[in-house]
Design brief:
- It is a single chain.
- This protein is mainly alpha-helical.
- The chain has ten helices and two strands, in the order H-H-H-H-E-H-H-H-H-E-H-H.
- Helix 5 crosses helix 6.
- The protein is globular and about 50 Å long.
- The two termini are 22 Å apart.
Length: 206
């Protein structure tokens, strides 16, 4: 509730709750591999797969990465909510659009009809590792998804939803980009927790 309050004006970005959270973040960052800070998620997964790192915080697309590497859930890796977040679903969505003035609107509409159909959602999400936007899948259709994806579907249906800042679901792009810059500066040792919190508050206000 406090996290969602950051975007509703009910939680102060400069308040004690955020200060405490950033203190935890500082501790966690101390255990990370700084050589991966500028890398995308695939290189960040490699130390996990190679047994050189204990864990990373990653979205459901990691499942597709593990599948591509021939790794099996429960055998080669395990998954669990970030400690302290059980019962919370961190949300973002892939979106397909029909741009205004598209040269081939008929083809775009056909694509949108295809990707939003049951078959389209099953085909796309089983490969990507994510869960479908549709909620009308039968148990047989849900059985086509991995164990993790079925668990994620259950979580999404019952848990509290929070929007991801990192993926642009919680804030406008300008604020998200400013926060990413602030986190990069902090990770590089160019700021401390106090400065990071001030930068985040300023970014949210922008």
């Amino acid at each position: 509730d406090a996290y969602n309050g950051l975007f509703a004006g009910k939680t102060d970005w400069g308040g004690a709750e955020v200060t405490k959270a950033l203190g935890h973040y500082k501790t966690i960052v101390g255990f990370t591999d700084s050589s991966l800070y500028t890398e995308d998620w695939e290189p960040a997964m490699k130390p996990i797969m190679d047994g050189k790192a204990a864990f990373n915080v990653m979205g459901d697309w990691a499942v597709a990465g593990f599948d591509a590497a021939g790794k099996k859930a429960g055998q080669d890796y395990v998954y669990f909510p970030v400690p302290g977040t059980d019962g919370v679903f961190d949300f973002l969505a892939d979106s397909f659009t029909l741009p205004d003035g598209a040269k081939h609107p008929g083809g775009a509409k056909n694509w949108l009809n295809t990707i939003s159909s049951k078959d389209g959602q099953i085909a796309f999400n089983t490969v990507k590792g994510s869960i479908p936007a549709r909620t009308d899948l039968t148990d047989e259709e849900k059985g086509k998804f991995s164990e993790y994806q079925r668990a994620a579907m259950e979580s999404f249906a019952k848990d509290k939803i929070v929007s991801s800042i990192a993926h642009g679901a919680a804030l406008p792009a300008k604020a998200t980009n400013a926060m990413n810059d602030a986190l990069t500066k902090f990770a590089q040792g160019a700021s401390d927790v106090t400065a990071l919190q001030a930068d985040l508050k300023a970014a949210a206000a922008s």
